[in-house]
C-alpha cells in the first residue's frame, strides 16, 4: 500500500513539473502586439517503431504523423475561435499547403527555411510549428486496454511533443510548450492535442482569458 501511495505521489509531482514545461518570452506582449494571423505548419516527426520497415516507409509514416498534428491543431484552434477565445486568426491549412507547394516547399525540405522566411512566403505574422517523437502511430489510434494503476500513474510512454510559436518579422521564439505523451494523453492525435492544449489554455499567449487575467494582476499592483 505504501508503495502505491509513493508512486501516486511521484506521479502528482511529475504532473506539476509538466506544467512548468511552458516558455514565454518576456517580450511577447510587445512583439506580438500587431499579430493578426498565424500559420500552422506540419510537425517534424521522428518515429522509433518496434516493427521493422524500410526507410522509405518510415519517412512516409513520419510525414503522415506530422500532418496529423497540423490538422488536429487547426481543429482545436477553430473550435476555440468560434467561442471567441483567441485574439488572432489561423490561416486555413489548405491555403498554407497550397502556398508552400507553389514555392516548392515540401515536408522533406521545410526545415531548411527559417520561420522568418516562411512567414514572408505565407504572408502571416507568426508561425506555429513543432517536433514530435513517437514510438507508436498515434494517428491510427492506440488501445485503451490497460490497468487502472498504469493509467493513473501515466506509464506506457509514447513519446514527446513540442509546440512553439515564432514571430514572423524577427523569427524569434515567443512561446513553447513541451509535453510527454502517454496513455493518459489521449487515444489518437486529435484527442491528444485537444487534451494537452486544454491543459495549457490558461498559458496560451493569444488566449483572451489569459490576457484579462494578466491585466487584472497588473491593475491590482498599481
Low-confidence stretches: 4-19, 146-155, 212-222
Residue share in helix: 40-55%
Secondary-structure arrangement, i.e. CATH architecture: 3-Layer(aba) Sandwich
Q: Which fold does the CATH topology refer to?
A: Rossmann fold
Shape: globular
Q: Please give the radius of gyration in angstroms.
A: 19 Å
**How is the biggest beta sheet arranged?**
7 strands, mixed
**What is the average per-residue confidence, as pLDDT, rounded to a whole number?**
81
What is the number of domains?
A: 1
Describe this structure in words.
The protein has 222 residues and is of the alpha/beta class. The chain has a single domain (2-220), classed as ABC-type transport auxiliary lipoprotein component (Rossmann fold), CATH 3.40.50.10610. Helix content is 44%, strand content 19%. It has 8 helices and 7 strands. It has helices at 2-18, 28-31, 55-82, 93-102, 115-122, 148-153, 189-199, 208-220; strands at 22-24, 37-40, 44-47, 89-90, 126-134, 157-167, 173-182. Strands 1, 2, 3, 4, 5, 6 and 7 form a 7-stranded mixed beta sheet that branches. Helix 3 (55-82) crosses helix 7 (189-199). The chain starts with a helix and ends with a helix. Residues 4-19, 146-155 and 212-222 have low confidence and may be disordered.
